[in-house]
Amino acid sequence: MLRFSIVAGALVCLLVSLPLSAQEDSSNRETLGSIEVLDPALKDLIDPASPIEVLTTGYQWSEGPVWIKDKSVLLFSDVPQNKIHSWSPKTGHSIFMDPSGYEGKNGEKEPGSNGLMTDAQGRLIVCDHGNRRIYRVESDGSKTTLADKFKGKRFNSPNDLVIHSSGAIYFTDPPYGLRDETKRELDYCGVYRVGVDGEIALLIKELERPNGIALSPDEKTLYVAQSHRPAPIYNAYAVMPNGITAAKGKTIFNSLKYANQGDPGMPDGMCVDVQGNLWASGPGGILVISPAGKLLGRLMMGKPTANCAFGEDGSTLFITSSDRICRVQTKTKGLGF
Question: What CATH number has the domain bearing residue 248?
Fold first, then answer.
């Protein structure tokens, strides 16, 4: 069942044990798109004939998917609609949190949550566009702000995050959530690290629009995607033993060719499999990029695609693509499974 509580004016749906029901029936589910093989190595990661299933639709801009292992539930944001939704193979769709970000009437352009992850204790960590912060959802449904300013200046609109095994949080801060960019307090779009002691460090400030972010399996490389038409790139940064990254990164893949030919979407959210391959949103849908930066293939979604995450037994890839939530079976597994 689901338990609801009112916290600071927010309706929060806390997931508790769900009763078992009949197995999910996907026989009549809509499928879409195709899988484009650009290198034979892709076939070791996914069957090109695998159907891309549509699980649920009706969102304005779906984002930030995260699989909650102990509840067998996918959570995801609808950023403009200011909600976190859930989808379960047992019970289907429900609202998890409303609002997920700004609680007033006249907020920013995108008032809701964006990127979502869980920490080692299973607590949800949220990028909050509307309040320009990173917060944690506590067991009672309350929200604890983890970061909202750097050197006294408010962030632009924290977009996506990844959590290191140490508990440190790495996140990107483009201005996409702001209604009026001229009111930015920071004159750059940074990539930051929040240490377990709460100290915030600026790692990267040279990217025009940093967006998706991920760590390699050995946590020695931080990947950052840039959603910026002149340079729709995926960069890799060396992570030092103290958790700080090298200021200068290496571009491992530039998707400008596909953007220029009109394929929908730009580099955005991404996840990493156990072999270190990037499954990254970008022009066309989801790009599968080897650790060496070779494009192995694309999952062609037909619409701009924001993000993806592994779930279920670890081999299912969930995809947030515009108004839809989709999934496809792979032959690999995501980190943490």
Answer: 2.120.10.30
